[in-house]
Known about the structure:
The complex is a heterodimer.
Chain A: E1 2-6, H1 10-15, E2 21-28, E3 31-37, H2 55-58, E4 62-70, E5 77-80, E6 88-93, H3 95-108, H4 115-122, E7 124-129, E8 156-160, E9 164-169, H5 172-179, H6 190-205, H7 217-222, H8 229-234, H9 242-245, E10 253-261, E11 265-273, H10 294-313, H11 323-327, H12 334-343
Parallel strand pairs in A: 2-6, 6-7, 7-8
Antiparallel strand pairs in A: 1-9, 2-3, 4-5, 4-11, 8-9, 10-11
Chain B: E1 9-20, E2 26-33, E3 46-51, E4 55-60, E5 71-76, H1 80-86, E6 93-100, E7 113-119, H2 123-135, E8 143-149, H3 158-164, E9 169-174, E10 184-185, H4 188-195, E11 202-207, H5 210-222, E12 230-233, E13 249-250, E14 253-254, H6 255-258, E15 261-263, H7 264-267
Parallel strand pairs in B: 7-8, 7-11, 8-9, 9-10, 11-12
Antiparallel strand pairs in B: 1-2, 1-6, 2-5, 3-4, 3-6, 12-15, 13-14
Helix pairs in contact in B: 4-5
Amino acid sequence: xxxxxxxxxxxQWVKKLQAYRIYAPSKDEDIWTYETVTTPEDIDLEFxxxxxxxxxxxxxxxxxxxxxxxxxxxxxKIKEILPDDDPTIVFGVRPCDAKALTLTDKVFGGDxxxxxxxxxxxxxxxxxxxxxxxxxxxxxxxxVDGYPHSTEGLDILLTDMGDKYHVKSxxxxxxxxxxxxxxxxxxxxxxxxxxxxxxxxxxxxxxxRQIKNxxxxxxxxxxxxxxxxxxxxAMSCLRCGICxxxxxxxHCFDINDEVHSSVPLKGxxxxxxxxxxxxxxxxxxxxxxxxxxxASRLRQRIMHKFQYFxxxxxxxxxxxxxxxxxxxxxxxxxxxxxxxxxxxxx
Amino acid sequence: xxxxxxxxxxxxxxxxxxxxxxxxxxxxxxTQFLEDNGFSHQSGQCAMLSVFGKGEAMISISSxxxxxxxxxxxxxxxxxxxxxxxxxxxxxxxxxRGPYGNSFPIEKWKxxxxxxxxxxxxxxxxxSVLNTALGxxxxxxxxxxxxxxxxxxxxxxxxxxxxLKNKMTVHLSIDVEEPDWEEYVGFVPLNILDKKPSPKNAIxxxxxxxxxxxxxxxxxxxxxFKDEQIYTTVENKMKxxxxxxGRCNIGLxxxxxxxxxxxxxxxxxxxxxY
Lengths: 346, 274
Ligand SMILES: Cc1cc2nc3c(=O)[nH]c(=O)nc-3n(C[C@H](O)[C@H](O)[C@H](O)COP(=O)(O)OP(=O)(O)OC[C@H]3O[C@@H](n4cnc5c(N)ncnc54)[C@H](O)[C@@H]3O)c2cc1C
Ligand code: FES
């Protein structure tokens, strides 16, 4: 369903959404993050790429999922800790980050459904914002089957049209949010449709970075397991792991027990984001490590995103947000790495 | 399927047997769930054991699925969790979740001679499938076990191995000479070259340290065994056990789901990441 919402009516819409916990982009010094907001005035939709994607709302960086307790002679007691039941809206989701959630869906779904992930995922409505201009100079969504105005994974897509938003509702949940303030949304006029198409077409042209012929990369990678390429590319890596922590599609985690009292025993089992870029990620307790160096870990990151995931799910595990490029302290640039893979040996 | 795969079920330790003492201590534990929960496994599968406050460790289930009264685990003391398991007493409660992974395709092996080849703690995953085969002995041809340990003190399941000699062929070995040792002295792969098992109508199943597995496979090939006749297990570091935490992969395989059991025909085509 396509509608028009005047920008000046936006706060009235948000006021009708009080039953929901609302996250929106918010600026802390010069970093954009998603934070909970209480008034419509706190929602700023003129934002650049956020430090972390909204993945952190569905799959938090640190999550307590079990509590345990044992008094002296008693048997231990364990308690499953589930996320709260609060229905949630995220405003200002970039199309690449929404698409990223459709990829983590594949991992957390399947034959063992991850109840923590899905509880939050199912109670969260995603209101996207099309990128009329790229929010980062390193955006490259067009190269990985994305668009700056893609609707994949979203419930609603807003497009900024000056003094109004074009509002495309895509799911039942999206519809529900519009119905809460029906009178604010008007049907688009004949000119609006044309303007929208023009804005979307121009937004594509503004994306400067691209990987040509990425299609050639997955089959190429298959033959590059033993290549010295990985040593060369990983040379400057500081193994800080920021490329994976900032990534909206990375999903690796660690599980640990935290003890708050030893007698009587009380503590929590937590999961925290982890990264394939750290040496102990794969190290056995014998000390043997199947991925012992930076080269094998960079290879894992690239192979996972552009070969294994493609073979398994027919999608790149990358949505072109550019965060890993912007944040790498030594300038390892995934676009350049993939360009080199494509041209390697030819 | 369980509603929440991450939550362990409580189980009581009903028996502890010290197999090996010293720095590389191994103990065998038998456990029973406090409540019946439909846990049912196949040979080759593993379970995630919890000591609350210490964490979790992935351990092969060494009892056969034919054994309904308890689950058995043989555990080498390594780090935090396995040391805490070694400190438990009979009657203590641990957590168990699983079973995880694929299993040995024992149904496909009917009518064949089975050769089990284990080293060190690697006898634990073999023990389940070996006992399943013994329990259905009429379904299979000859059963043979090769088992080696560093020293005679490091041999696990000592008494069971003695009893086993009445039911199947058992070739034991230790790595270096000892005064009272009457069987083979030398590494497991060499014992295989020494005894020369026949590849005819045979399947081999080998578990142990990666370096042993590598040479066992080389020597089996030298004796004429084909890739499809050689099975082994892979033990990469694991946390979730259900293909989510991204830790245990070999190429596009998650060992916790797609493994740990592989035929060499499959494994040789995967990257060397184990
Ligand atoms: C499929 C599979 C089957 C196994 N079967 C057995 C068995 O039957 N008997 C046995 O004694 N051991 C077995 N292991 C090895 C056992 O899981 C590790 O020795 C154990 O996890 C070490 O944990 P820790 O806390 O004592 O050591 P630490 O070094 O303190 O471990 C720290 C963390 O790393 C993880 N970790 C470290 N090394 C390994 C490793 N090699 N494999 C998996 N996770 C590791 C642990 O989960 C732990 O959370 C098996 C491993 C796998 C993957
Ligand atoms: S152990 Fe987590 S993916 Fe295999």
